[in-house]
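Table S2 (text version). Query chain:
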Amino acid sequence: MDQDQYHLMASLEDRHWWYVARRQILDRVIRKRVGESPGRILEIGCGTGGNLGFLSRLGPVKACETNDEARRLAIEKTNLKVAGGSLPDKRPFADEAFDLVCMFDVLEHIEDDRGALASVLANLMENGYFILTVPAYMWLWSRHDTLNHHKRRYVMSDLIRLLKTAGFEPVHASHFNTILFPVVALVRLAQKALRLNGADDMVMPTWLINSMLGSLFASERWFVPHLALPFGVSILVVAQRK
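Corresponding structure-token output:
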């Protein structure tokens, strides 16, 4: 990601509907599928630290982030230990094992996603949990993906196959951001048909729109931990080390 994208992220992640609602969904999924106290937690690719607050309420947390400026912002925001490093070759905390490893919208940034997942496995305790989110469907590709240096978007079957090959056993998999999916899909398909670049998704809407979108998206926290939603803008998988 470009430096200005990290500063934009830092300015939005405490109040933008997408970040706020996603944290509520992830919190529910972890509590349901992993436990109220999952143990030692590692977040890989923590960005500017927006998820570290809710993760800290679940257990002791460490984090890593490749970008120096994002890491500085995360430490400034949370006062937690945030290491450098990257996957698959410069794995942080290489001599430690964790009960829960999280990668929230990170894998799509990594060229060698297969190698990255193998590296994650090495940081997991036996029977430890891995929770992963990624953007779905290459046909939803937009300017937002380009600005954030995404390498790909995923389909569920390919992602599950990739995880199993790396040594994980998926225990729960679902799409999410499903309620708003028809609107997102129509907008992005229209942009492609009309050959419009489109605006970046990460802009702060008015208070009313932000509240409405946040409520709609956050309502999925009652479904995603329990059901396998068949489509959505994103994919979530909870897996265990085999």
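Notes on Table S2: The radius of gyration is 17 Å. The first strand starts at residue 41 and ends at 44.
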